[in-house]
Every structure is written in structure tokens, then in C-alpha cells.
Prior knowledge:
This protein is an alpha+beta fold. Among the domains are: 103-115 and 130-204, Beta Barrel (Thrombin, subunit H); 221-314, Thrombin, subunit H (Beta Barrel); 320-430, Roll (Pdz3 Domain), CATH 2.30.42.10.
Amino acid sequence: MSNEQNTEKKGLGKFRIFLIVLVSGIIIGAGVAVAFLFIRTKDSKPSGVMKSDVASETSEHENGEKTSTGANNTDMNEYIGKMGDTEVTRADVSNLVDNVMPSVVSIKCTSVKARGRNSWDDFFYYDYGYLDSELSGTGFIIGQNGSELLIATNNSVVENSDKFTVTLHDGTKHEATVKGSDSYYDLAVIAVDMNDLSSDTLNSIKIATIGSSDQLSVGSVAIAIGNSLGYGQSVTVGYIGAIDRSITISGREMMLLQTDAAINEGNNGGPLINIRGEVIGIASEKYTSYSSGKVEGMCYAIPISKVIPVINELMNRVELETDEIGYLGIVGKDVSDSYSKTFSMPKGVYVYSTDPGSPADNAGIRAGDIITEINGREVVNMEQLKEILSYIRYGTEIEIKVSTKGVSASGYQERTITVELGKRSDYERDN
């Protein structure tokens, strides 16, 4: 074989090796590329993932509460995403509000006053008749006793008014009467005659679900529903900014919930609800107005857990004739906020003396005792004690909590005394 042929054969061999290497590289490279694209595609979901199964899950919050977001919790839609290592929740409260609205009512209060005649009227013999003054407010259905639908609201909504019109969820309007009111706590219960409600109306409304204001934490979601400015029901959403915020007006200290959910005129008396649709407070425009013009985003609500005994008492009030009212038999004086703080005394009614042989005397209540509760309801002054007793019939047994000066760390010892109220006329004859 010639040298030329050997050279040619060697060249063909090298070319074949080059082709084999080239093709192998292309195949391997393509395989790597396909594998890379497959892995990249599989892991390329967005960082804010919308979880489609959130509605059936239960999340546990920092305060230890377990919150179901499923059908039992108003079918609320939640979207959860990631911001660094922090989980962020955004809630659509529309379904929640739809579930709560049937328990919320609008209240229109009318004060009817006779107009005075003046010389101009007298000259033309024209009488303008009566002057109507209207006020709007909100309430929520708290219960019913068979004959009455009972609605909780603020005392500041109904005080000084003569006529009350309630608009229910289905738009029907009904006359209401005041069942009971308490100016100290700014609470009232009004009643609508159940006989005035059609079956369709009864099917469209429901009693509000009561939650616990004692279990709230700062930063919890707060939703206010009310008849803002009298325009009809509206919704504002915010957060609990403070718990047990002390607000003092005219010497009266109130411990309230602070929220940035807007509470405007007409919202007062309406419910402040949590993310589960439970009432946690009663909106109080009275106290919110006190701070208006000074700061923004500071509205207040009465904590529901602290006033449930008051509402229960107002719901069950029965008007009594004077000779039916129960008699206790004490002479008392208010323990004011300043006295309570200065002398470390419990707030309530200080007993100066008891009438000899009276129900209080026979039950063991003595001078120097401080009455702090009646039937589980806090008593803070003598006027309030008289008002509570004015709705309890003689012969009824009541439980009175008193604080007695003692040797305990606080200086006072609490005890609960059962007292059967007497009939005043019996003791007046004896005296």
C-alpha cells in the first residue's frame, strides 16, 4: 500500500471519530437541556400560592384560638401568601357580613315636642303644631321571649325620644318600645311585638351570636356594621387597637375596646364583630365623638363580656307598681372612682347603715360593707342599685355580693349573701 493511501485511511479514521464525538455531544447536550427544562418547569410556581383547600383547613393563631375557615365559619374565602418567613392572611368578609346582617336592625328615634306659640303665630292665628326631632341608630337582635323580639342598642340612642321605629333585615318597619335602659353603661333593650311580624319576616331575621371580648388580642380583626348617618346599613373593617382602654367622661371611667373600624353617627348601638361573625362589642359613637377632631382611627366599643349581665337584666325587666317593688333597707353612698383609687376601696355602694329588722339587716349586711353586685350584675352607685331593685318584686330572693373590710392582702373580703326582698309597706307600719 502506498504512502498516499495510508494517509487517506488515517484521515478518514480521524473524521469518523470526530463525527462520533460530535453526535454524542449533541445527544448528551439535548438530554441535559430537556432534563433542566423539566426540573425548572416543575419548580416554577409563583411565590404567593393561592391554596385551594384553605376552606377545609383549620389554622391555629398565636393566641391559641383555633379558627375554622370552612362552611361552619361563614364560608369565608381566605388567601394565604408568603412574605419572607411571615404568613399573611387576607380575608374577604362579604360572606361573613351576609350571615350577620339578618341580626342587625336600623333604629329611627323621634322626639315629639309641642311648638310654643309666638306673637307672629298669634297675629295670624296660626299654630305650627308639633316639632319632630329625629335620631338614627343601630341595634342587633339579642333574643326573644315569646311575645317580644328583643334588640340591644345604646341608651344614648333611645334616651329623650318618644317614638321608635325599627327596620329589620327584610326592609319591614315596626314600632318598638323601651324594655329597659341603663345610662351608666349606655345600654338599652328595645322590644318589638312578635304579633306584628309575618312569617316571612321571622324567616329573614335571626338572633346575633355572642362572642367573648375577654379573649381578644390587640391586632384582631374588628368589623363594625351600622346605620351610618342614617343612610342604611354599611360595613367598616379594622383591627382591635387596644383592650380595656380607659376613657373618662364627666367623671365616669369606662373600660372600652379601641378599634380603627370607623364608628360614625348612626353606627352607635350596632355590633362590633370578630372574624367568626360573633358580637364582641357594642359600637359607642358617644365615646368616639369625645375624641373626634383630636385624633384619627380611634373609635370605641363597649366590651360585650363585661355587660352581658346588664343586658340579661334589661331583657327580663317587668314594670311593677310602686307597692310591688322589693325593699332592701339600707342607707348608702357611692364609692366614686377617686375614692376607690385613693383609699383602695372596691367601687360600689358603701353601706352607712341598715334599717333594723330589714331584709338587709336580717341577712347580715352591716355598716361599712360595700355592695358590688346584685344577681351577678355590677353595682357602681346608689342610683343604679335603686333602679335594679325597682324591677324586682318583693318576696324574690336575690344574691348580693359585698366587700367587707378585713385582713386580706387587698384589705377587703368578698362574700355573697342571699336576701329575700321585703314589702316596703310592712316595714313602714312596723316603724
